[in-house]
Write a structure and sequence with these properties.
113 residues; 1 helix; elongated
Length: 113
């Protein structure tokens, strides 16, 4: 299968719906980086998933979101680290305003084309 070497997907947990009063609804999502830091973001449901989520659904739900590789290296322990930005392609940033994160190679997959 062909893939764009800079287009990656990371696994994210949709933890809860934060606002369902206005279309399209908002969800709180989280993920862990290579250094085991937890990151939170709040985003519109259709930006992160095609699922038709409602407050009656069970959470958390695991999904993948797209991101773009910035650089790649091997750390002092021989682990392959990939820095990626969630700014591209969907403009996602954490509640702290961060959009670049380091991931272990095992935490990412290449986008399907």
């Amino acid at each position: 299968m062909l893939h764009n070497p800079d287009c990656l997907e990371i696994q994210v947990s949709i933890d809860k719906i934060t606002d369902y009063s206005n279309y399209p609804g908002w969800v709180e999502c989280s993920f862990y980086d290579a250094w085991n830091n937890r990151h939170l973001f709040i985003e519109k449901i259709p930006v992160v998933t095609e699922l038709e989520l409602t407050p009656d659904d069970l959470f958390p739900q695991m999904i993948f979101i797209k991101c773009t590789k910035v650089k790649q290296w091997e750390d002092d322990m021989g682990r392959e680290i990939i820095r990626a930005t969630t700014e591209r392609p969907n403009g996602i940033e954490t509640i702290d305003g961060e959009c670049e994160f380091d991931f272990l190679r095992e935490q990412v997959r290449y986008c399907r084309m």
